[in-house]
Specification:
single chain; 183 residues; alpha/beta; six-stranded mixed β-sheet; 44% helix; globular
Length: 183
Amino acid sequence: MAVDLFTRGAMTDTHTDDDGASRKNGSAYSRILVPTDGSDLARRALEEACTIAGLTDATIHVLYVVDDAAIAELATDASLDEVSLDADVHRLFDRFEAVGEHAIEDIQTTAGERGVDIVTAVRRGIPDEEILAYVNEQDIDLIVMGTHGRRGVQRYLLGSTTERVLRRVTTPVLAVHEQNDKM
């Protein structure tokens, strides 16, 4: 599996949290964010995050974002009449939130097997904006995410989001690439 670490600050010799707690190995990483869309690549990003969390005693935060724009596009593409639009859009949000909850359940199982503390959240909005807001709100030290998400309609949930996050964030990002067996 190929990984790239785009950093603007990373491991340090010593680090003490605001609450006075020292991190294992003097790591600056105590809160790691893994945005997910439920894809295999997002699960591989979680594996990388679990490895780092195991070394640094960090807590992993998992965020699934239901993309408002993607749902609006789906609703308008379906040529829904105005009478059914509200109900159908609400059902679409419910379906995407259910997908997110399922993805998070899978991640909780994986993290639990690795003995890693985990915090989860499902939000609605524009994925890169919600990721950046979460990073600031939760004082995230490292983001670990796949370089692309699902195909087709699901691509809206992560896809080029990684590029937009990389361009705007000051937090280090570990970008996990799809495995290429043709090397």
